[in-house]
Amino acid sequence: MSDKINRDRPQLGRRGLLGAGALGAAGWIAGGGGWMLAPKGAFAADPIKMGIATDITGAIAPSGNANWQVAQFTVEQINKAGGIGGRPIELFLEDTASDPKIAVGNVRKLIQDRKVNVVLGGITSAMRQAIKDPIVNRGRTLYIYPQLYEGQECTKNLYCTGPTPAQQCDKLIPYIIKTLGKKRFAMPSANYVWPQLLNKYARKVIEANGGEVVFEEYYPLDQPEYSATIGKIRDGKVDCVFNTVIPPGLQPFVKQLYESGFQKNGGVLSCVYYDENLLNYHPAQEMEGLYSCLDYFQSIDDAFSKQLQADYMKRFPDTKYLFTAGSAATGMYRGIKFYEAAVKATKGDLAREAVSAAMDKAKIEQGPGGGAEMVPGKMHCKMNMYIAQCKVDAGKTRYDVIESDKMVDPKEC
Amino acid sequence: MGIEVKLAFDLLAFISVMVLIVLGLGIIASMMGIFNFAHGEFVLLGAYTVYVFESSGLSSWAGIFAAPVVLAVIGLVLERLVIRRFYAAPIIAMLGTYAVGLVIRESVRGLLGGHYKSISEPLPGVFTLLGVDVSAWRTVIVLTTICIIAGTWLFLARTSVGLQIRGSLENPNLARACGISTSKLYAFTFAFGAALAGLAGALIVPLYQLSADIGTRFLVQAFLSVMLGGVGTFEGPVLGAAAVGGMAAGLPWLVIPVLADPLVFIIALAIVKFRPQGFITQGRL
Amino acid sequence: MLSEAGSGAGVTAGGAGRSGADGPRQAERKRAFRRVLPFVEGATLLLALAAPVVLGEQTNLITLLTNVLILSLLAISFDLCWGLSGIMSFGQALFFGVAGYAIALVGRDLGFSELWGTLPLAMLVGFVLAGLFAAFLLLGRKPPTSIFVALGTLTGSYAAERLVSGWQYVGAGNGLSAVKLLKIGDYEFVEGTAFYSLALGILLLVYAGARFLKQSQLGLVLAGMRQNEERLAFLGYRVQLFKALVFSLAGMVAGLGGALYSYHQGFIGPGNMGPGLSTAAVIYCLFGGSGTLIGPILGTAVVEILTYVLADQAAIKAIWPVILGLVLLVVVMFQPKGILGLFLSDRERIGSYGRRRRDG
Questions:
Q1: What is the DSSP letter of C174?
Q2: Yes or no, beta carbons of A222 and B116 under 8 Å apart
Q3: Which of C275, C328, C333 lies closest to B85 in CB terms?
Q4: Residues spanned by the domain of A263
Q5: Are C3 and C357 in contact (CB under 8 A)?
Q6: pTM score, two decimals?
Q7: Has the ipTM of the complex gone over 0.85?
């Protein structure tokens, strides 16, 4: 990426006397790491600095890379249209490496070294919990979290642009129980906060609709062996597996479930973060027939979304990291557009309080799957939600939309 | 009846995975007294070999057959260059092999770009056995493990090289006095142990995805298995692996999985503490 | 009274208690022998004191150096075990992490983060946990093999990491974030020069304490233990008990480091008590030079600073861990005494004991 670094800018200028001196000359102060996407061309105004903290390596890498590519794509679109109020956006990337321990240190670089105006990122809730303190409290920076999650994140200056449990479960679960007729649920889960709180919410909806939770179990993230789980699914005559196991434990689980003939015998697998990107994680036949509920699927018949997809694929031809909803890519797009709208509303004032106040009321007219609007005071946004089923076609997956709902309320905070 | 068969099979499949991984480690530990911290990375390299074959368009089966060969060569080279300096000091051996493992692991991580890769089983799907659906690939693993155990036992018991190895296991000095070149035997043993690890990696990678960290996933369990079973024999580590593997797969039935996970270690460590010579006592430690 | 516990080939019979038999040759060697260690220590101290002044406003670098100081505590803790007493512990991070969790929990549940309370608590947690561990691993009817101790500590560290990853109360895989800031009265320590000074002060105290220990009678016993356990046992010393004591003290130091880390990072996770960090401590110590106490500090500084700097260059970023591994391998194979071994004589590394006679 070095050819994109604008060498005219004084890299060390803001470091003061000593930085530009001996240590700088020795190459020691190399500016904090990560990658940088600097705007091309001559922009008179000072750029707006945007930090992306996402998983480029590690178990969540396929989603993290999708996030990063979508961020680059979106920012390039905005810059091509003149930036925000004439100011270009400059992107900085830090790899959170799917490891909260490493992430904390790297995110600190974004804040202290790069001094970004806003940070977008974090995919798993574990990651969000780890990096939100360095960003929001110690770093006093705005933070936008783009991924679907368990809700109850009401920290000030932390905006969530991904779906909440209410948005994902309120229609999906009744559909499974009433339309598909599957009433006995199993909840195999990864052992961390997202599955725990999501399951609590889902259980309420399941029981309110006449279903039953046969068992709810938590595994270490890298559990390799699930025969006990499969046994319980069989014993309990479970007909719907509401899965919240995540990679790396996901692959052995889904494989063992498939091998046990669960789907063959009519069982339904449902997982609310499954999208077209999951092909990067395991073979297609293991997810055939799966039900998911997200804010966007590629098969949606929407002119803007289709154009967005086409432009994205043109920008990143042959990429395996697709622009999908379960991987926080749509939330990333939404988050950047919300930020753009907010800064336009503050007329260029980048102070956190000002932008935050503007963001609180921000609306975007168009986006993947439709527009979105922030619910004032609630840090979350309304968006369109779609229930879809995974169909397999020559080794590729396709999500056929079954139901859609407009501007669903997140019901948070 | 079907359910019990299925569960017994699943348990057997996981134990086979553990045995495959531990066998090489146990042989090296019994023979040379060193715990090879790079063993997990040998498993990783076996898996990586299959990945390389598969992504170059060659058959995965070829990769599976190539993996032990590749690892035998690597093991031999490492033994000559690095490992032989450590025979006198087992603790330094642990550090040295840890360093070797670190180099291998991070090199693979760099080659993989930090990503996780899916490798499909060369023999996918399920087939029906005794009215129960069993995974074809796991069956291959179980059968291969049985063959390897049988083959290794035959080798040790019936061949002259095997006899030399057993002699060196029991009393290296005496073996040397009889004119056996323990140095050559050690090299052979290390290469053999590495080859076993490579084969294990090649066989289990379709189940668990390839990433730079698959080697470390089972390393501590492997060490415990060897200590549990008893260093110094061939059967010891196998039994130890069966015990640890059985606990790891079986405990989640009794306690919640997140507790079962560390419990395996605590129980194994406690057993080792109170029976330090392991299940089968003979030979070195 | 043993004047020296060292044995290694080529070490001159030095210090007190030497008869003047080979007068001129001995005198020559004595002249050639310069004490390097105090220079190294002095230089390091000067650098450490000068750093915040020189770096001024660059918080990210001060943060880096503070991290170095804190991780040095972990490295010293390992050195107390291995360099001083010959106990290979692959699990020092266990005490580091558990103490870090303890003070994070105290901050979260009790709202308490006063320095005079939490740091002693961390030390106590480290000491007690290490003591229990040592009792399990080391004491008993039969003395354990060194392999058992090494693997036992590794297992302990690993099992703890797995246990904590699954335990919701302590945040499970998320770890504990937003750790309440360390404070004295109303003053809160944030990342920066203040925390750096605190960490430096604590490191100095620990270092002085460890040095004192090393030069003391207890240190002499440890040196004997390190050289030849059996011999010392035959002299009547209860070797395992001494090992347990040192292990507990090392655990105390690690615990202190863990608490500072938790306060400084504002985050503590299962990875901070697992084999990953434990083996990092081993690397720091071996790289710098085990047994010298200043070696681990130097090792930590070099490794951490290089990692920070090199992580920036995209080209090296991927292979830096490989380089680190290769360097460690070279160190283990050819230069087990680490960087300091390059210019520190064996005698200085091991140390002299006993009173100095006037001819010394």
A1: G
A2: no
A3: C333
A4: 165-299+386-408
A5: no
A6: 0.80
A7: yes
